[in-house]
Design goal:
Rossmann fold, alpha/beta, binds pyridoxal-5'-phosphate, six-stranded mixed β-sheet, 2 domains, 10 strands, four-stranded parallel β-sheet
Length: 330
């Protein structure tokens, strides 16, 4: 399959395909955020997804759509974060071999996170580039299939299932705030939502430190940005200079883009804990950060995607205790 345009039909098929592989996550109304904003605010609690983020949707869809030859040889990836976890779990559930390659600089808790979901971890070299060389070798010499974190037809279609779910749970939603890194999530969600109601606003949110999609949209082509330490660590990295899908969809379908500071992200993590009783990671909190900071002002009925919950609990404790954590100096 090599079609260039992702449609709602692809997302509906994905939903069917992954129906037993993922859970339908709940939506709750936030009294505190609604009052603050003067408009009803719904939180889509995707940090409660199996493996702690929506990445399982795309990974499951891609894995369940492999042909029998590809299944035999297995899948490989380089992500040490939520995509790696999703891939590892989806592969182990499907009984498919999965190798995640990483450099020796990756901290032990991340290695353990991936291993606990059933993947083989291969530690190679001193950098992400060294890990990528091993991935390329596994693809060319061992016929394994590389599954990237966002710029892939089945990954985007899988993430889009979150949009279908959200529209069923909040049928009258008028605006949706979505965390953005490479843009797989917002692309899938935007296709799903705009196909049903183009008037619904799709609002992207990233951190100020190293927002590659935002910089690329501004430049009107994919650009490199310096990767900086941030509390929203799942939103780091580029969108790929040879981006195939997500940049074009983002250009077409994103209505507004907001950047939030480290301090605003910390405030959002605190708010989520003390006011909503939610433990969420920085990347999952950027929509709340946009609201709390006043940068997201809307009179429309809003849904905020809380995209993930995989935060180091020691770091989380320090943030909610009021410590002014600067990850650049950690
Ligand atoms: C990957 C990720 C994102 C961003 O997803 P993209 O598809 O890369 O834009 C947002 N939040 C969390 C928790 C993630 O893991």
């Amino acid at each position: 399959m090599n079609r260039s345009r992702i449609t709602i039909a692809d997302i509906e098929q994905a939903r069917e395909r992954i129906s037993t592989a993922v859970v339908q996550t709940p939506v709750v109304q936030s009294a505190a955020l609604s009052e603050l904003n003067g408009v009803c605010v719904n939180l889509k609690l995707e940090h409660l997804q199996t493996t702690g983020s929506f990445k399982l949707r795309g990974a499951s869809n891609a894995i369940l759509n492999l042909d029998s030859e590809q299944r035999k040889y297995g899948v490989v990836g380089v992500s040490t974060g939520n995509h790696g976890r999703g891939l590892a779990y989806a592969a182990s559930q499907a009984g498919i071999r999965c190798i995640i390659c990483m450099s020796s600089l990756v901290p032990q808790n991340k290695i353990d996170g991936i291993k606990s979901h059933g993947a083989e971890v291969r530690i190679v070299g001193q950098s992400q580039d060294d890990a990528q060389i091993e991935v390329d070798r596994l693809v060319s010499e061992e016929n394994m299939t590389m599954l990237p974190p966002f710029d892939h037809f089945d990954i985007i279609s899988g993430q889009g299932t979150l949009g279908l779910e959200l529209l069923e749970q909040v049928p009258n939603v008028e605006a949706v705030a979505v965390p953005v890194s490479g843009g797989g999530l917002i692309s899938g969600v935007a296709v799903a939502i705009k196909a049903q109601n183009p008037a619904i606003r799709v609002i992207g949110v990233s951190m100020e430190r190293g927002a590659a999609m935002h910089a690329s949209l501004k430049a009107k082509h994919p650009v490199l940005v310096e990767e900086l330490p941030t509390l929203a660590d799942s939103l780091g990295g580029g969108i790929g200079l040879d981006n195939q899908y997500t940049f074009a969809i983002a250009q077409d379908l994103i209505d507004e883009f907001i950047l939030v500071s480290e301090d605003e992200i910390a405030q959002a993590i605190r708010h989520a804990y003390w006011k909503e009783r939610l433990i969420i990671e920085g990347s999952g909190s950027v929509g709340i950060a946009a609201l709390l900071s006043g940068k997201l002002q809307t009179s429309k009925l809003l849904a905020v995607i809380v995209s993930g919950g995989n935060i180091d609990l020691n770091l989380h404790y320090r943030i909610i205790s009021g410590e002014n954590v600067d990850v650049a100096n950690e």
